[in-house]
Write a structure and sequence with these properties.
Rossmann fold, homodimer, 24 helices, alpha/beta, about 20% strand, 7-stranded mixed sheet, flat
């Protein structure tokens, strides 16, 4: 079903406003490309000073065209570009691609002009790509409205990869790397400033093309989480992986992004949590963006990812074992039978454990891989083979090695990847469809990514829970009082400390007696969210005298601070094994976010926390908590019993539901401390603070 | 001055035992190489079945030679190899290179045979390389006794790089990568099993060659720390950097290394500390081993490393800023004058802050880099330039860009590095001597490595301190008692808790009264190093009753445990701000090692520590402590005063001196806890345990 953006990637007619005969001018390049790459639709150069451009009839204006073009690429600058956008909107153009720079990325004045263009487009039902975009390219149809030099330098070929990027350069860098490896690319889309159409929408658009089997994305800001989530869902349904390079992680990077594409900074750890939730793999740099492409495209099923490393070099075996541990790739434990067979097949000084070192004996026995691979094929513990041939050449039968590897893949369906320093060694393997890499790190990085990405997609996002239906009491103070906050949490099914809000000293004494143990006495006022800073928290009150003194100090303290006194809170002192803190907030782009953190005084100075985006289930919380630095303590160390991760997981799920339900009225919820007991003992919120939106 | 290994890298005559006419046989390759690569010394093929091999006169045996060859390469296997080693020793050969595998790396029996060869060699004053070695190559003289296929596939050229490796493959992988980049390599030395000559000795040997300006090392075990340290000292004196890839980090990697070269596992964190101390850069993988080669070789002085990133792509500017933060590369803060000049030189929509985005306007104005670089040249905050040209080609004047970059380097002496996706863009820069990289990560990784490596070398190793002269009391128990341990520390000038060893209850009471505060009461016996596990530590005794009860419990506890009772220790309870632990031990290869660790119950489960190898000074300890996770607390957070890092540094230096002085008699020293106060308050050892060697 065509969507409103279909004309962006698949236009039936294209006008080029500011058309040039010079293919090295921005107004000349698209026309050159449309002609060279076989675009079959109508091409309308527009330039009042010419009658013909690069062999096409040229028109003086949009109005002079025989019909409205589906897409118009605007190659004029400044005020002319703004006028052209408006003219396109009036003429009934579906998609305007505005290449000119100098708008939102330059500051407030530029943003204003940009907004004017967007308004004109939207009023007419037109969509605008850019401004400050390199343009769009569809190599299936030859609809190229981009001015990139790269398409002259590195010949295109249609294929299964879609590249979607805010930046033009960052779109053609992966294009170049893939094309040099012989991989075809269908789309290279640059969205520029994302003033109207944003990079997430374009990802969603290409995810619908049945010919696309891998999507690579470069973004400096994500401002449309919903469309990216929808794109991921579409893509996963078709088993199409999405890999994203999201820059602007650092303060200086975010500042640079703002001057580049007018990007608004995202909170980077929330981006991580979002991408993880939606099964989008986050690449660390441009090489990592493309590194696993062959593995993705050949439909590699890494199964449980248990790997055998096999090499003619012991050093590569050692390096592979080190890297496997570092990346978390499990090494296959070979069966006794496999090892016996390997030992029989290999020279006596070779290694029949995993990694398998066939040694330099490969120089004299070209059949070694052919003997070893069928043995490994029969071992159920083997999911993938990493073959390292760091050196070979004269005297080595490379063709036979490649055939042996291909035969293994064909007979087992299990993937083989190769690393080889020499291009001449990689070539025959590549020709047989084996993914090849130059270094051990690239090869194992790709294998790891494939398996981990698959696990991420499998784990993701089927949970739907209803928000809690809890409401917050009305009020004008920016914060709820502690008693109000605890009441909201309790309604949401979150276990809070036993407590009572006391309006008189006598009630407080009675509360203490009823609790029957040491209590904490705290001032309760919506005006004093940080009451301990006022010295209005009294812990371990275990005598009536202490209790009464604390009560009076709280009342006096609230009075002298001029705070509205709701009362004095008397709460049980809770013992436990570990202090955590849970929090939730509403991110302006990504919505509700829940944080689970180790607790204590240095929660900010020595951060140890994980973020999750609701909805999520208890298993996801428990898995995320295993990424905490304190994870060993949760499992129990030094003979200690494990901690009650299940109770905290339950609490986090309910907190997520609560935050989701209250996001219109509440900005953040802090539960600190949360006291966690031994498994089975539960977890309890001892203090809480809700901030209104 | 020639050393005993000079004949290994620079032999005047070479015999090849097991010589073959077939250049694809192990016995044929060295002869082929000696002939092809212009070796001018005498070549003696040895093979009883031939009179000529590859054009050289062939001899039946070593004895048949006109004179003893300086070097003999043994290409026969098994028992023949052993016999050949012995024959070489008898004949007066200086260096035997034993290529055969199947010795130490296969297990105990192999190790025994290997030891026999070493014994024969040593008895005759001969040195042996290998067994299980690929051999040696010196491309300055053509003395190639290696059988590597790589020298056929990738033509050699003499140059400033020495590669020394246990593994043959891991020696030719960097060779291949460097040669493909046009860099000459002088030495490619593989040491194999290191049975006699080890990899560290060979590093020391090549470090003496004035023609060598960069040394790359691959090792699976370091067993000769002294020679590696000496090599580093030699190299640094000549400003020659050493970069090492040390594998066998992981358990499986160490196991694989053991079957590969018979390598004995090093403790990896001690390796880190050793390499850091000796200014040897540790590379993470094979690419990282060679990545910064051009920067090292062109004598790049990165100064303070403050970088300007400059690109025609905003995306690369953003990525560079992110990476700079990640790697710790400082970004130059451009002066107002620089920014004003940049703004005037650039299009209005370009960015005149750092990173500098000249934008795609570079397509229409080829002079942009030429305008910008001279402006940057005048800013004192600029140490290095990172130029990113992710896309260029037709319409771009690449030659001019390269000339502009080279002119900047020439006029300022400041380095420029380039990253470019396309080989065609890299080529003109490479031709002008600019180090080029394919990706932003490689380029910035190399820049960072150069600056950080230089800082490492500058920081390293001028400290010499005298050991303390302290001795330990005689005894047979594996541990010293706490009182003995504390006494040794006190003699070494380490501040220990106020305490008294009490032989009677009355003495204990008097001690408590003298201390005048709460005390800890502990059983003191060399037989109970872990006394708290026996419940024989009583904290916070603040009444005579508690004290007496604790005393009696200690006495009774030692009696029932059958432990030799030295007495009962009464020690002041020490308050402070943070609990640390310090430790020292003797590593079998690297000698004394000092650990500084965050303290507490979970010291093993949640490790946070740094290692240092004595001698070191207080500044080195303080710098190392900044690498602890708790470093922010040391500096003071949340308005807290900083902690007394100086006192802990002093303590660590004295502990290092003590461990160095006692390494014959003491295996380890544990100070746990060490209570650290606010700056100026000091640090005090509360419990200590010395283990005898």
């Amino acid at each position: 079903m065509p969507t409103s953006l279909n004309a962006a990637i698949n236009p039936t007619s294209i006008a080029v406003i500011g058309a040039s005969d010079n293919r090295n001018k921005i107004g000349g390049r698209p026309i050159h490309f449309l002609k060279s790459f076989g675009y079959a639709g109508d091409v309308y150069p527009i330039n009042p000073n010419r009658s013909e451009v690069q062999g096409y009839a040229c028109y003086a204006s949009l109005d002079a065209l025989p019909r409205a073009p589906e897409l118009a690429v605007i190659c004029v600058a400044g005020a002319d570009a703004v006028a052209a956008v408006k003219a396109c909107a009036q003429r009934g153009v579906k998609i305007a691609v505005c290449i000119a720079s100098g708008f939102g990325e330059t500051g407030p004045a530029g943003r204003e002009v940009e907004a004017e263009m967007v308004a004109a487009a939207r009023a007419a039902g037109m969509r605008m790509i850019g401004p400050n975009t390199q343009g769009l390219a569809n190599f299936a149809t030859g609809a190229i409205t981009s001015f990139s030099t790269m398409f002259i330098e590195v010949p295109p070929a249609d294929g299964p990869v879609a590249i979607v990027s805010q930046s033009g350069a960052a779109s053609v860098v992966p294009y170049c790397m893939l094309r040099e490896r012989g991989i075809g690319v269908r789309y290279v889309l640059a969205s520029g400033n994302d003033a109207d159409v944003n990079v997430c929408e374009l990802v969603r658009e290409v995810a619908q093309d049945e010919g696309v089997r891998l999507i690579l994305v470069y973004a400096e800001t994500i401002k449309d989480a919903a469309n990216l989530a929808a794109a991921a869902q579409l893509a996963h349904r078709r088993k199409v992986p999405i890999v994203m390079l999201k820059s602007g992680r650092s303060a200086r990077g975010a500042a640079a992004a703002s001057s580049h594409t007018g990007a608004i900074a995202n909170e980077d750890r929330v981006v991580d949590a979002f991408l993880r939730k939606h099964g989008i793999w986050r690449a660390g740099d441009t090489r990592a963006l493309v590194n696993a492409a062959e593995l993705y495209l050949n439909g590699t099923d890494p199964g449980l990812g248990r790997m055998v490393a096999l090499s003619n070099s012991g050093a590569l075996c050692v390096l592979a074992a080190d890297l496997a541990e570092q990346l978390g790739i499990p090494l296959s434990r070979l069966s006794d039978q496999t090892r016996t067979l390997l030992a029989a097949a290999l020279p006596s000084f070779a290694t029949s454990t995993n990694p398998v070192d066939v040694t330099a004996a490969l120089l004299t026995d070209s059949g070694l891989f052919g003997k070893v691979l069928p043995i490994l094929a029969q071992d159920a513990e083997v999911d993938v083979i990493y073959l390292a041939i760091p050196v070979a050449g004269e005297g080595y039968d490379l063709q036979r090695f490649a055939n042996d590897a291909a035969a293994f893949v064909q007979s087992t369906g299990k993937p083989v990847v190769l690393s080889a320093t020499q291009a001449s060694v990689r070539a025959p393997f590549r020709a047989r469809g084996i993914p090849v890499f130059e270094t051990e790190s690239d090869a194992l990085g790709a294998l790891h990514q494939c398996a981990a990405h698959r696990a991420l997609v499998a784990a993701g996002g089927s949970v739907v829970f209803a928000p809690t239906g809890v409401t917050v009491p009305a009020g004008n103070a920016p914060f709820l009082s502690e008693a109000q906050s605890l009441a909201v949490l309790a309604q949401a099914g979150i276990c809070v400390v036993e407590h009572e809000l006391c309006g008189s000293e006598a009630v407080a004494v009675a509360a203490w007696q009823r609790i029957g143990a040491a209590v904490a006495v705290k001032a309760c006022s919506p005006d004093l969210p940080h009451k301990s800073e006022y010295g209005l928290v009294f812990l371990r009150c275990d005598t009536e005298t202490k209790l009464r003194e604390a009560y009076r100090a709280c009342v006096a303290g609230m009075r002298s601070a001029g705070a509205k006194a709701e009362g004095v809170l008397v709460a049980r002192m809770v013992g436990g094994r570990r202090e955590l803190a849970l929090g939730a907030k509403v991110d302006p782009v990504f919505g509700p976010v829940v944080m689970i953190s180790d607790g204590g005084k240095y929660i900010e100075a020595l951060p140890d926390n994980v973020l999750l985006l609701p909805p999520f289930d208890e298993a996801e919380v428990a898995a995320a908590m295993q990424r905490l630095r304190i994870a060993p303590l949760l499992r129990g160390v030094r003979g200690e019993a494990p901690l009650d991760v299940a109770a905290v997981s339950r609490m986090a799920v309910r907190l997520g539901a609560l935050m989701s339900g209250l996001q219109e009225s509440v900005q953040s919820i802090d539960l600190n401390p949360v006291i966690m007991g031994t498994a089975g003992e539960g977890a309890v919120v001892v203090d809480a603070l809700l901030q209104r939106a």
